């Protein structure tokens, strides 16, 4: 009798052990998923940040996943409760937009990088232009269009419009624009020869061998190009602070500078 009763007890113990092991495995998987850093970053950061993140994952052992798009689109996604831990914008305006809505952690905010605005053409183009007041941009376009990130909200487009307005030529090209969803899409239009000229960041231009830089817009023709970073208010990821600190480290600085960014102190 006692021997028969022992079998159910044994089976019960085995089931309990299996349940415990399953729970541990599930908890570990959930914990690993929760620890993954979800980063929303301006499209112009892709090459540099991919490399920085690879070093971060190797050195710190924390996995990251990054969504690249126009800062305007990413800010709107965060506003709509998209799951993100870190936001890196290509301008101050969209970070300020989220800050006013209490959607970032203000104590984590920092100005991370700087950039320059350039005029580009396909690498085999014969166009020559000297950027200056009232320079003949419209004439250089001919029947083509000026590739530019959407100037109504995308940072690169807003900077571009400001520069052209300051130089007195914006009104001459408003009917010759090829607006793109972000600066990398703008770059592709020129690199593929679909637009004869375009306005992008210097870092984008040096990353694509299909384009060449015709000139750099004077810094005083547009607001300073600043990339702020902050943790998203809804993030509970314990790795937020460490990641932001790493992006200010010498290892990250070397990568950003190699990609032609200016690292801000």
Q: Note the main sheet.
A: 6 strands, mixed
Indicate the structural class: alpha/beta
Q: Provide the CATH top-level class of the largest domain.
A: Alpha Beta
Number of domains: 2
Could you explain the architecture of this structure?
The chain has 265 residues and is of the alpha/beta class. The chain folds into two domains: 35-113 and 227-263, D-Maltodextrin-Binding Protein, domain 2 (3-Layer(aba) Sandwich); 117-221, D-Maltodextrin-Binding Protein, domain 2 (3-Layer(aba) Sandwich). Helix content is 45%, strand content 20%. The chain is built from eleven helices and eleven strands. The protein has helices at residues 2-35, 46-60, 71-79, 92-100, 137-141, 155-166, 170-173, 183-191, 202-207, 240-246, 250-258; strands spanning 37-42, 64-69, 86-88, 110-114, 117-122, 146-149, 177-180, 197-201, 211-216, 226-231, 262-263. A six-stranded mixed sheet has the order 2-1-3-10-4-11. Helix 2 links the parallel strand 1 (37-42) and strand 2 (64-69). Helix 2 packs antiparallel against helix 11 and helix 3 packs parallel to helix 4 (92-100). It starts with a helix and ends with a strand. The model is unreliable at 1-8 and 12-34 (pLDDT under 50).
């Amino acid at each position: 009798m006692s021997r028969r009763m022992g079998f159910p007890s044994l089976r019960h113990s085995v089931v309990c052990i299996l349940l415990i092991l399953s729970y541990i495995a599930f908890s570990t998987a959930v914990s690993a998923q929760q620890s993954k850093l979800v980063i929303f970053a301006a499209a112009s950061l892709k090459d540099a940040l991919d490399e920085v993140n690879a070093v971060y994952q190797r050195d710190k052992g924390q996995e990251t996943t990054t969504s690249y798009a126009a800062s305007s689109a990413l800010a709107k996604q965060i506003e709509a409760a998209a799951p993100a831990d870190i936001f890196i914008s290509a301008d101050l305006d969209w970070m300020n937009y989220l800050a006013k809505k209490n959607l970032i952690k203000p104590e984590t905010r920092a100005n991370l990088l700087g950039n320059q605005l350039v005029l580009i053409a396909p690498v085999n183009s014969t166009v020559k232009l000297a950027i200056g007041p009232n320079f003949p941009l419209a004439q250089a376009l001919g029947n083509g269009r000026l590739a530019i990130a959407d100037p109504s909200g995308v940072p690169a487009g807003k900077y571009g419009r400001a520069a052209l307005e300051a130089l007195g030529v914006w009104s001459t090209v408003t009917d010759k624009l090829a607006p793109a969803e972000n600066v990398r899409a703008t770059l592709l239009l020129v690199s593929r020869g679909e637009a004869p000229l375009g306005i992008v960041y210097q870092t984008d231009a040096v990353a694509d061998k299909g384009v060449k830089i015709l000139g750099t817009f004077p810094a005083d023709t547009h607001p300073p190009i600043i990339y702020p970073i902050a943790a998203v208010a809804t993030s509970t990821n314990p790795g937020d602070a460490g990641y932001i600190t790493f992006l200010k480290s010498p290892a990250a600085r070397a990568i950003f500078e190699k990609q032609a960014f200016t690292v801000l102190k």
